[in-house]
Every structure is written in structure tokens, then in C-alpha cells.
Amino acid sequence: MNKLLRVMFIILIIALLGAAIMQLFFPEAMGANSEYGISVGWQREIGFWNLAILPILVGINIKYDFFFLKVIVISLIIGGLGFGTNHLIGYINDSSKIISLVGALENYALVILWIIGLKIEYKIQKSRIGNEYD
What we know:
By secondary structure, the protein is mostly helical. It is built from five helices and no strands.
């Protein structure tokens, strides 16, 4: 796996773990900064979802498989587009929630980085396959 994807996965693992801890143990604080308000049950649900994703991300970092790497990165791209758009809609509906705009821009930037990382990985795979037949 290329260095960009490796670093991004590690950052994502740390971010998801931190968010899960905050959402599970301090849901009021997380909800207070959301345009959706405080919903303890919903914050906990997001926290559990974050924990459920962690083994997938850790697994691809431990055992490389190009097919599963593509599936995971494409899923992260789809999720990033969805989360970013959801944050953007939240900001458009209430422009006082600057955190929503930051969330949108952050997710869109991550999508761009995931795409770049995947393109780098495709080039690496293409060169490996090409070299096998030379």
C-alpha cells in the first residue's frame, strides 16, 4: 500500500476511535456542536458505527489485498461524499453552524485524497503486473 493511503488510514483510525469515545461517553458534548442538536441515542449509535468500522481499517493495514483495498477506499469515497454533502446541506439550512461547513470541506478534501491514493495504488499495481510479464 502506498504511503499516502497508509497515513490516511492511520489518521482515520485515530479519528474514528477518538470520535467513538466522545460519542459513547460524552454524547451531549458532541451533539451540542451539531446542527441536529443533542440526541444521546443517535450519538451513541454513531459511536458504535465508528467502532464497527475500525477492524476493517486495521485489517487492510495489517494484510494488504488490492481488491479489498479498492472496495474499502471506494466505500470511504462514497461515505465522504455523502457525509460532506449532508454537512453542506446542514450549513446551507443554518449558516450559523460553521462547524458544518468545516465538516463538508474536510470530507470533500478527504475524498480527493482517497482518489489520489487509489490512483497511485493503481499505477503501482499496473507496474507490478507489467513487470511480471517482462
